[in-house]
């Protein structure tokens, strides 16, 4: 547990404060806009990407049609593959160790079966999001100087990512767009 030091603790604080901060600054839910939080601690880099489902698949309800199930499954496939989501410098020698996705619907809904009881949109059927978390372990973390975001081509409805980063180099926040998709680490 001691390995998860100040940077990961700060990431936890950023994640805990994010819903409140988002509501106060950006509104509770903004289509086309996602959030990215990145923490580097020792040889580990942890990322959390959260986006309204509308920005990824064009709807925010449980998939109802074959086309919607296909869009939902395709979005999840992209997000489960770290190489399609972001790139780190090859010299850092990073390997993905953990990828998790959370959305309001189980795989049952994506497969076309009825959603499980309680698999709602947190009480708000008009707004739902997907959260993806990644953990990489890097052999040469000093080489982690930039993170290239590859999501914009895969999700054309996504127009902005509000990114926050905590690393040994300090903390920063920036706005990423299809034209500026690099986050300095």
Key structural traits:
185 residues; 3-stranded antiparallel β-sheet; disordered N terminus
Summarize the structure in short.
The chain is α+β, with helices and mostly antiparallel strands. The chain has helices spanning 6-25, 53-57, 66-80, 82-85, 107-110, 151-154, and strands at residues 33-41, 44-52, 86-87, 94-102, 129-138, 146-149, 160-167, 170-176, 182-184. 28% of the residues lie in helices and 33% in strands.
What does the model show?
- The chain has six helices and nine strands; from the N terminus they run αββαααββαββαβββ.
- The radius of gyration is 17 Å and the shape is globular.
- The protein has 185 residues and is of the alpha+beta class.
- The protein has helices at 6-25, 53-57, 66-80, 82-85, 107-110, 151-154, and strands spanning 33-41, 44-52, 86-87, 94-102, 129-138, 146-149, 160-167, 170-176, 182-184.
- Strand 1 and strand 2 (44-52) form a beta hairpin.
- It has a six-stranded mixed β-sheet with strand order 4-5-2-1-7-8, sandwiched between helices. Strands 3-6-9 form a three-stranded antiparallel β-sheet.
- It has one domain (6-184).
